[in-house]
Description:
alpha/beta, Aspartate Aminotransferase, domain 1, Aspartate Aminotransferase, domain 2, binds pyridoxal-5'-phosphate
Amino acid sequence: MKLSERTKVIKPSVTLAIAAKAQKLRSQGVDLVNFSAGEPDFDTPEHIKEAAIQALRKGMTKYTDVRGIEPLRAAIAEKYRADYGLSYDKDEILVSCGGKHALYNVFQALLNEGDEVIIPAPYWVSYPDMALLCGAVPKIVATREDNGFRITPEELRAALTPRTRAFVLNSPSNPTGGAYSSQDLEALARVLKTHDCVILSDDIYDKIVYDDFRFHSILAIEPKLRERTVIFNAVSKTYAMTGWRIGYALGPAALIWAAGKIQSQSTSNPTSIAQAAALEAISGPQQNVTEMVREFRRRRDRIVSLLSEIQGVHCFKPHGAFYAFPNFAYYLGRTVNGKKLNSACDLADFFLEEAAVAAVPGEDFGAPHNIRFSYATSLEEVEKGCKRLASALKKLA
Ligand SMILES: *Cc1c(COP(=O)(O)O)cnc(C)c1O
């Protein structure tokens, strides 16, 4: 079968490959500790499920407005007003089938062949491939671990060219948990003000932050960027609703309209009853979020300290999201059972085989020395998994 050229420029998600290997070991009866999940382990809160059930009972089972039901778009506008002082009209909001779909639609609406998209690394796996699907060029800019995985204003300035069409900002970050303070954003905004490109701000972890870190929107800091910034968010991570597939974009009306046109010729509206659930999630009680974040914080503290105790492992302490992204450079190049561990991928395979621990190697995040450990799993599993890793790595020491 001859396939389109488009399918050849992208690769399948590595996360799914690890999940498949892990699943296979599990089916063979192996007691696996799984750090590969990209989603909260908590259940969707009951009041949110109830809203979906009510919507179903009331017959909300037909097509809706392609852009999402009006009350949901109004609730999203209200969230951004109340939380960040930003003002958006209902025509400046598009609800899509997950945050990923919102990003995809906007990439498609924005990018032409040869346009450059600046993506700081480590990055969420889908940004480069989404750019490639538009014929655009991902321009990967490595950040430094000792700078908290943040792109500096100088690094950003150096990456800008006349072809730069967009800059991707993801704070807090998947996979690093790195995040930008208001001063950081102010400094980046000063650079961005001088160059006409679109800022794509992926705020999906805005509510999953720790200690005294506060999420800031770059637009609250520099309102002049409003006409060329798109904000992305979703209910997936904040409300443990990954399977419901509701995400959204806020941005200038013309771009949102164009992204909605693409959606209208592909998926049409996101699932009607999932929209009703998302409306309850965003406008209902937020107590569950507070509790989930409190639990994530305890696990973060534990996993970072346990990983850091292992010889040669360096682990940045995340400010948000639910991933630790330790550096294993110390172990790369070592040999075990006659096999040389050349890459994070080899090391992740070693963890799986020797320690029955599943984690996602950093290559596809643009970080070949690191491995991502999701702590969306119980404290007991965190402790068991780290103990196994420590003893497996002793064999390499
Ligand atoms: C999970 C995630 C998304 C997409 O989430 P959806 O499940 O599509 O709503 C987008 N960006 C980042 C950084 C993520 O981690």
